[in-house]
Amino acid sequence: MTRHQLSLDRRIQSLFPVALASLLVLGTARLVLDALKTNDSFVFQLYGRPRGQQQSPAVVVSPEDRIDESCNVFEGKWVWDNVSHPHYTEESCPYLVKQVTCQRNGRPDSYYKNWRWQPNDCNLPRFDPLKLMQILRGKRLMFVGDSVQRGQFESLVCMVQSIIPQGKKSLQRVPPRKIFKVEEFDASIEYYWAPFIVESISDHATKHTVLKRLVKLDSIAKHGKHWEGVDILVFESYVWWMHKPTINATYGSPDVQEYNVTTAYRLALQTWAEWLESSINPERQKVFFMSMSPTHLWSWEWKAGSDENCFNESYPIQGSYWGTGSNMEIMEMIHDQIQDLKVKVTFLNITQLSEYRKDAHTSIYGERKGKLLTKEQRSDPKNFADCIHWCLPGVPDTWNEILYAHLLKSHQNLL
Ligand SMILES: *[C@@H]1O[C@H](CO)[C@@H](O)[C@H](O)[C@H]1NC(C)=O
Ligand SMILES: *[C@@H]1O[C@H](CO)[C@@H](O)[C@H](O)[C@H]1NC(C)=O
Ligand SMILES: *[C@@H]1O[C@H](CO)[C@@H](O)[C@H](O)[C@H]1NC(C)=O
Ligand SMILES: *[C@@H]1O[C@H](CO)[C@@H](O)[C@H](O)[C@H]1NC(C)=O
Ligand SMILES: *[C@@H]1O[C@H](CO)[C@@H](O)[C@H](O)[C@H]1NC(C)=O
Ligand SMILES: *[C@@H]1O[C@H](CO)[C@@H](O)[C@H](O)[C@H]1NC(C)=O
């Protein structure tokens, strides 16, 4: 083994024990009652109460909403912007689970909420919750993946929910789904727990083991039937694969075999691709795939000589940076798989922009096994900091600004 491979294996092995066993658990989300008092929203004031589809106002797309096709929105930098960011606060969004409300959980610094992603060659459209809801009118948008993806789901719900009056919105838990419904738009934003996308023994929404993983590389039907007909599907799967360089799986027969993770991931993607080709109507449905969300488990990667993690980091990384936890081979594999499909899948390459954000993880201000860390655990960040999940408001809001920019693109012909 070369030195590189050795460090690679050490990295993959430690991804789980450090953080995951308890962190990837779906968690005990408890819905807080909506604080909104009025029942007449900003939406009604602007457009009146919609009655059926015919009267739906068209989505007004302004010139600032257009992004030039040639602009790579994934290249850029984080700029300080405490005017436009955050889009919401922990207090204003009743749907956040305890795992992500870092400030309420005791995080002393708050700069992490105020950075805006600025692409080098263009501006991202300003996020407008009303426009997003107009785009989603009569539609379902579903995030499929693991707990990182659940963070993106919660982020989007919080980004839009303030314009919907109380009583006209609801969050239901129908494991393995979570469904945010907006009555006046006949729309829903949903989340579906499937950490490997294909079937596995980790599919139970709350009772799942990460240490004994067993993936069925050629089975997807049980999940797929819940994805059928969904207008916008947003997939993500990464960190669960990375526990060890090998994974137990079945393929073609009930016999369990150990597979190289790269090989297993490729086979799972093929199964997913076949499902897409046979189930997606490209005229009516849109499919996105999120690139991997980076981890910041080893501070020596950005601060030579140190031996810690993301704990006590208050600022983004300046200059170029790519952590070894983000496996380029897997990224390329996903990209290649998508290229070959007849169904168009848009790959949102959010890894690089998130790599800079060593400051934005939940660290010791999140949960472990469904409970906030104890004082003793907090005093031991080396073992207890979560450098995988993100605080909200935070980085997943930016992923959603980019998703929003893409959804707007398909409405630009309305002007
Ligand atoms: C809310 O709606 C109810 C019935 O729809 C109405 O009686 C009440 O006055 C409304 N409240 C406000 C604050 O508009
Ligand atoms: C926003 O940031 C500027 C520059 O750091 C600071 O002077 C100002 O007080 C901040 N405003 C708020 C509302 O935090
Ligand atoms: C696969 O399963 C066997 C039997 O349970 C176990 O001994 C082995 O460690 C597992 N391999 C991995 C990579 O989890
Ligand atoms: C895993 O598969 C990849 C790609 O086929 C290969 O490059 C790598 O050497 C394999 N690793 C092991 C441990 O077999
Ligand atoms: C966090 O970092 C600051 C300096 O960046 C340092 O002064 C402080 O002692 C650190 N806190 C802990 C708990 O390590
Ligand atoms: C994603 O972005 C990174 C960083 O800019 C780049 O190196 C990589 O090639 C991109 N991946 C794909 C599949 O486009």
UniProtKB/TrEMBL annotation:
Output the superkingdom of the source species.
Eukaryota
Question: Where is it localised?
Answer: Membrane
Q: What is its main location?
A: membrane
Where does the Trichome birefringence-like C-terminal domain start and stop, copy by copy?
Answer: 124-405
Keywords of this protein's UniProt record, alphabetized?
A: Membrane, Signal-anchor, Transmembrane, Transmembrane helix
Bilayer topology reads: Single-pass membrane protein
List the protein's name.
Trichome birefringence-like N-terminal domain-containing protein
Q: What is the lineage of its organism?
A: Eukaryota, Viridiplantae, Streptophyta, Embryophyta, Tracheophyta
